Amino acid sequence: MTQPAMINRYRWYELIAIYAGIFVFLAFILSPFVEGFLVSLKPLGLLFSSPYKFWPENGSFDAYRTMWVSVPGFARYIFNSFFISTIVTAIVLVLVVPSAYAFARFKFRGSGPLLAAFLAVNMFSGAVLLIPLFRLMRTLGVLNTYFAMIVPGVAFLIPSAIWLLRTYMMRIPRELDEAAFVDGASHFYTLRRVILPIAMPGITVVAITTFIGSYAQQFIFALTFNSKTEYMPLPIGLYAYFGRQEVIWNELMAASFVGIAPAVILIFLMQRYLVAGLTAGAVKQ
Amino acid sequence: MGQLNLNTVQKFYGTFEVLKGIELEVKNGEFVVFVGPSGCGKSTLLRMIAGLDETSSGDILIDGKRVNDLPPVKRGIAMVFQSYALYPHMTVFENIAFPLRVEKMPEEKLKAKVEHAARILHLDQRLQQKPGMLSGGQRQRVAIGRAIVREPKIFLFDEPLSNLDAALRADMRIELAKLHRQLRATMIYVTHDQVEAMTMADRIVVLNAGEIAQTGAPLELYHKPANIFVAGFIGNPKMNFLAVTCTGVSDAGVQVDYKGQRVVVPVRPHAGLVGRTLTLGVRPEHILLGAGDLSLTVTPTVIERLGAHTVAYAAIGGEGENYCAMLPGTVAIRPEEQVLTGIRAGDCHLFDEAGIALERRVELTDIDMGLLDPAAA
Question: Which of A54, A146, B106, B138 has a Cα at 20 to 30 A from B84?
Answer without folding.
Answer: B106
